[in-house]
């Protein structure tokens, strides 16, 4: 049996943490689709043409140490706006989504474009200020020197690009359950996500 859970949302909203927890709870496989775009972005920063980087992506590219830097995050957002790059990665994501035993995919267009027929769809969000604060703390903990104003500006710039692109803009699917994590603890956010998936499973069997 296949069961697909699509979890979308902007950067630093908590969708990665929630997705991993949901996958572990239900025993499903998990794919952070943002890593695909980060890997393409990293290869582009190293000199590769974006579409060529997407078509030649390997598993090793997803394990590079520099995929979480601000520079790669911005490059990922830029290459994700290229339709041919997105098209090159669609088949991989869809095949993963329908694997036997269930799958959780998190990204920005999973419920709207990649898996519009997903059995459960969530949209995880939070205010730009809250997300920037989370990202700022994460970068400082990694020893990356920056300041909150810069991170907030980067967050808003990336939101504008992700939401404004012509191809697969960031937005909740019409039937997605929205979870705002601005004032939720990790445990509360995970519990809300699991409850939403449980409800989707019940509806599928009735």
Give the strand order, joined by hyphens, for the main sheet.
2-3-1-4-5
Low-confidence stretches: none
Q: Averaged pLDDT, please? A: 94
Query: What level of helicity do the residues show?
Result: 40-55%
**Classification by helices and strands:** alpha/beta
Would you write up a description of this structure?
One of its GO terms (molecular function) is ATP binding. Belongs to the cytidylate kinase family. Type 1 subfamily. ATP binds at residues 9-17. One of its GO terms (biological process) is pyrimidine nucleotide metabolic process. Keywords: ATP-binding, Cytoplasm, Kinase, Nucleotide-binding, Transferase. Helix 2 (33-45) packs across helix 4. The chain has 206 residues and is an alpha/beta fold. The radius of gyration is 16 Å and the shape is globular. It is built from nine helices and five strands. Helices cover 55% and strands 12% of the residues. It has a five-stranded parallel beta sheet, sandwiched between helices. The protein has a single domain (4-200), classed as P-loop containing nucleotide triphosphate hydrolases (Rossmann fold, 3-Layer(aba) Sandwich). The longest helix is centred in the C-terminal third of the chain and has 20 residues, at 186-205. It has helices at residues 15-26, 33-45, 50-55, 70-80, 83-97, 110-114, 128-141, 148-164, 186-205; strands at residues 4-8, 29-32, 103-107, 120-125, 177-180.
Keywords:
single chain, 206 residues, alpha/beta, Rossmann fold, five-stranded parallel β-sheet, 9 helices, 55% helix, globular, P-loop_NTPase
